[in-house]
Amino acid sequence: MLIKLLLLAVISTAVFASTDKFVCYLGSWSNYRNGNCRFTIEDINPNLCTHIIYGFVGIKNDGTIRIMDSWLDEDSGLGALRRFTGLKQKNPNLQTLVAIGGWNEGSPGFSKVVSSPTLRAAFISNAIAFLEKYGFDGFDLDWEYPSQRDGSAPTDKANFSKLLAEFRQAFDAHKPRYLLTAAVAASRASVDLSYEVPKLSQYLDFINVMTYDLHGAWESVTGHNAPLYPRSSETGTAKTLNIDSCINGWIERGADPQKLILGIPTYGRTFALSGSNKGLDAPASGPGSAGTCTAEAGYLGYNEICQKLKAGGWTVVRDPEHKVPYAYNGNQWIGYDDAEAVALKVKYAKTKGLGGAMIWSFETDDFKGLCGTVNPLSNAIKNALDVSPEGPGGSDNSSSSTTTTTTPPPTVPPTVPPTVPPTAPPTPPSTGCTCGSTGYCRDPINCGVFYQCVGKTQYRFECPAGLYFDVSISACNYPSLVKC
Q1: Which parts of 352-470 fold into alpha helices (H)?
Q2: Omega cis (within 30) before 212
Q3: pLDDT of 24 above 80
Q4: Structural domains in the chain?
Q5: Would you name the residues annotated as active-site residues?
Q6: How many angstroms separate the CA atoms of 169 and 162, rounded?
Q7: What is the DSSP letter of 187?
Q8: Which family does it belong to (predicted)?
């Protein structure tokens, strides 16, 4: 019996010691924000995360890699890609990856490439050449999502596994060996549509589970962006829209827990309240007001949230079952993560024996320390992971101290800003549009406004300033590329 207990203690210690990866994404378009909102490569502390991922590059139908913003990314312009990998000069233990895809990229290019053995081989060869050119340590596949959205096919699920197997073989043969990772959907329903989980677990070095956007202004009542556990009052689908259910779903479907990286948002989802109820499941008329940095209705970076809370007038509530806070002021409602919430999520990851934690993304933490502490969320995660100075990420010296809904949400946010500075078009008033079926439609007068249609109900959204909604890809895009 004593031997058995000692063995269990050793296993337990090994599990906790393995939760050591801290993966941090960069949304490169934040380079074009103004003032204290602007985030550049030089704002990244290279000793904070163990792995950093540059988002995004795109995929062409012939399997080549598409630079999305040549002025920002390439050496002939601002050289952001090489500046990003150059951070390893300050921390040789840091590992850098580039992410291909993202919400705006959609499925068509991926679907075409994975369906052909010839195109898959070309894609892998082009990826290796890209990593070699810019000095990256790995490749992160952010296909949102196989067998989902326009341009996808039912065969994408199996073909994605084939692509990963072939990537794995090529990366293992390469010297140095490249990392292969993926950003994946969290909810059980989306996982079942898109992934052969045991094969992803076999071929990927680690799996970045996007355990956020579980509720948002696409719903008619308030809900938290990334609740840790369900509430006792939740039933049906709502009871599965939390981190614990999502992670258990991945494990139940065959994922090695040590391959799973727990996604933690450095932003919140917002609502405009439509009544006197200020709590969870309160009636909402649409998204909350856009912030000065992120400029997207229904979405606020933590750097925007903390300044609002600091200014006063907000009531903060920490839900005892979800284990996360929300705040309200007038008709504005925010569900977000603070330092206490993210530390608790890291503790959860350790308890489950996961491989570590991930943030989306660098530029929405309080990276300027405007609320008192530089990168408060990232540092809370790092401290809870207890990554030692001798470990993969080194030390961080930059900081000071401190629903019941029957409509399933989209699996990703409705819009993601692109990676080039837009030219602001005029913004006429919006009038609504005719919903033919569930999906999205654009306002007939204001091309920067679009609506999500759920039955006969419309939910209004606005593109980031200066962008138009592109009906061909169901995402916001540059005005020059949109027929308006």
Answers
A1: 376-385
A2: no
A3: yes
A4: 2-267+337-385 (3.20.20.80), 422-484 (2.170.140.10)
A5: 144
A6: 11
A7: S
A8: Belongs to the glycosyl hydrolase 18 family. Chitinase class II subfamily.
Write out the two tokens for 309. Answer: 């809370």
From the number of C-beta atoms within 10 Å of its C-beta (0-12, 13-18, 19+), residue 277 rates as middle
Q: What would the two tokens of residue 415 be?
A: 């819009």
With contact defined as beta carbons under 8 Å apart, do 146 and 157 qualify? yes
Q: Is the pLDDT of residue 465 over 80?
A: no
Cα within 13 Å of Cα(11), Cβ side: 7
Contact 448, 425 (CB under 8 A): yes
The residue that leads in pLDDT, 456 or 82, is 82
Largest CA distance in the chain: 75
Asked if the peptide bond before residue 361 counts as cis, ω within 30 degrees of 0, the response is: yes
pLDDT in tens, 216-226: 999 999 999 99
Interatomic CA distance for residues 27 and 79, integer angstroms: 15
Q: Which two tokens stand for residue 469?
A: 């909604």
| Dihedrals phi, psi of 11, to nearest 5 degrees | -60, -45
- For the chain, the distance separating the N- and C-terminal CA atoms, rounded to the nearest angstrom, is 74
Token representation of residue 468: 């138009």
Separation between Cα atoms, residue 8 and residue 429, nearest integer Å: 65
> What is the band of 170 on the pLDDT scale with cuts at 50, 70, 90?
very high
What per-residue confidence (pLDDT) applies to 442? 86
208 strand-pairing partners: 183, 261
d(CA 303, CA 69): 25
pLDDT in tens, 186-214: 999 999 999 999 999 999 999 999 999 99
The encoded tokens of residue 380 equal: 């809370």
Q: Which two tokens stand for residue 271?
A: 């609502």
Is 221 within 8 Å of 281 (Cβ atoms)? Answer: yes
Question: Which segment, 13-27, 317-331, 395-409, is predicted with the most confidence on average?
Answer: 317-331
Tokens of 196: 């052969």
Tens of pLDDT, residue by residue over 57-75, are: 999 999 999 999 999 999 9
Beta-strand relationship, 449-454 and 315-318: unpaired
Phi and psi at 206, nearest 5°, equal -155, 165
CA distance 55 to 34: 20
Confidence of residue 107 (pLDDT cuts 50, 70, 90): very high
CA distance 46 to 90: 7
How far, CA to CA in Å, does 67 sit from each of 57, 73, 81, 105?
5, 7, 10, 12
CA atoms of 256 and 249, how far apart (whole Å): 12
Say how many C-beta atoms besides its own lie within 10 A of residue 402's C-beta.
10
For 213-365, list the strands marked E by DSSP.
Answer: 260-265, 267-273, 284-287, 299-301, 315-318, 325-329, 332-335, 356-360
